[in-house]
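If your schedule permits, I should be very grateful for your opinion on a structural question. I have a record of one protein: its chain in single-letter code and its fold written as discrete structure tokens. Kindly check, if you would, that the fold set down in the tokens agrees with what the sequence suggests. I remain grateful for any guidance, and I place the record below:

***
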Amino acid sequence: MAYSMQSRHARVTAVVDTWPYSMAEIERAVLSVRSVTERVMIIVPDVVSEYSCEDFSGMGCDVIRVPFCGSFTTVRNWVMEKITTPWVLLVFGNEVLWDEDAPTLLTAVSSDRAMGYRLIIAASDRGPVLAHPVRLLPSTSQVRFVGRIWPEVLGSLIEFGYGLDVLDVRLLRDEDRGSSGWATARLKATLNHLTEANPRHWQAQLAQAVLAWAEHRHQESRRRLEIIPKNLTGETRLIAQGLASLLWQEEGHHARAWAGIQRLVQQYPQRADFWALAGESLWQLKRPQEAQTALVRCLEIGEIPVPHLPPGYASYTARLKLARAEIAAHQEAPGLAHLLNLIEEYPGYRAAWQEVLSHLREVPVEEVFSAMSTVIAPSKIRHFCLQLANPTEDERRLAEWLEFRGLNN
């Protein structure tokens, strides 16, 4: 099917990161992507950014000031919720889309292929290739970024069964600022400057606490959290309380974590992140029925991006944990049914497949396939098995049976 240039552009939103780049760099980046996009979003993270939205008012873009709590992954996922086009193009503020490659990009987004594309990051049009990151990807609730500080999307694409390909499209950089080590050092210096200048800058203190947690410096993270006043209101205080409970969980102090979380869910019953933490603590304390109650509540509310929990904590991950809790509470039939429904909705969600197959390990493989195909389309079962690069023993058993039966073609 042929697309007009206008309809092809309408399929792409470019997201341009502004931190820590100069205004001249950002202007070049924005100008370079106009020919391939319907919408350009300029992202200004608060706390660390020196820019205001007004600084970009003359560029004709959507300028969005985003809450920053120590994790650019949370920023990226918050932005992804604002995308309405089928495709997203991610561009750093010091990158320029090479003009000659625009037709290649537009051809890719004209297709209905559900996949992520690795683009070429190069020092110049003939210079050395610096990296091949995924920068062109479908806009969907299944694709979310992970990473404690810096966003990474490859795992999400693989987990949910999206294809991957390298597209001959270049993003050029005047210099290589690709190192996350350099960026982390810059971030730490910025936050240190803010808190040294003003110890009562609670957002910067929280961002430093999140950063310390991300680097597994728990004592430093806890010290920063204790600085934040107990009577502080707003998102800063809520994230601080969630992170404090998560620290106890990660250190294995589940009873202590639950004591704090119990107060939080009573005080803030509309916070899905607190219910997700409650479900985890109750599961670790071997109280599966109570864990079920917490996870059901979490699913009813729905998630918002927070730095202390990965995406899925109130959707697919919560549903997986709920099924585990049901099975542990000797409710195996509804637990397995929930897992199968989860796979039907997220056919590439490998953790759910492995959970089902592990519980059906003693069942003859033909009965496994028959039971699964009552909920999951057989084509999805075949597709999953064909995509496996390093299958587990349970996965291999199903894949080999399909191959023997000639059902994987």
Q: What stands out?
A: The chain has a mean pLDDT of 91. The beta strands are 12-17, 39-45, 62-66, 87-91, 95-97, 115-122, 129-131, 134-138, 163-173. Residues 180-197 form the longest helix (18 residues). DSSP finds 18 helices and nine strands in the chain.
